[in-house]
C-alpha cells in the first residue's frame, strides 16, 4: 500500500498542506464574504418589510380613528339637521312638514350608506394589511412555501367561520 510507505509521507503531507491552504484561502476570500453579504441583505430586506408593515398598521389605525371621528361628526350633524328640520316643519303647514322630513330622512340614509361603504373599505384595507403582515411574518419565520394566496384563503375561511 503506497499510503503506508514512509518515503512518500513528506510529499503527501506537503500536498495535503498546499491543498488545504488553497481551499481555505479560496473559501475565506471568495465564498464566505459573498454568503455574509447575502445574509446581511436578507436581514435588511426583512427589517424593511417589518418597518413598512408597522407603518401601514399605524396608517390603518389612524384611518380607523379618522373614520370613527367622521362617524361621530356625521351622526352629530345628522341629528342636528333632523332637530332643525323638525323645528322648521312645526311652523309650516302639514304638507311642508312632510316634505322636509322626507328630505332629512333621505340625507340620513345617504350619509349612513356612505359611512357603511367607508367602513367596509376600511375593514378591507385592514384585512389586506393584516394579510401582508402575516405573509411577511410567515416568510421571516422561514415558511417560504406559504403563498399570499394561501394566507388569503385562510383569512376567507376564518372570516366565513365567524
Question: What attributes characterize this protein structure?
Answer:
162 residues, rod-shaped, mainly alpha, 3 helices
Task: Describe the protein in words.
The protein is mostly helical. It has helices spanning 9-91, 94-141, 148-161. It is 90% helix and 0% strand. It has one domain.
Structural topology:
Blueprint: H1 9-91, H2 94-141, H3 148-161
Helix pairs in contact: 1-2, 2-3
Brief description of this entry?
This protein is mostly helical and 162 residues long. Helices cover 90% and strands 0% of the residues.
How many domains? The number is 1
What distance separates the N and C termini? Answer: 76 Å
The helicity comes to over 70%
Number of helices: 3
Gross morphology: rod-shaped
Q: Supply the helix-strand structural class.
A: mainly alpha
Mean pLDDT over the full residue set:
88
Question: What order do the helices and strands follow?
Answer: HHH
Query: How large is the share of residues in beta strands?
Result: under 5%
Radius of gyration based on Cα positions: 35 Å
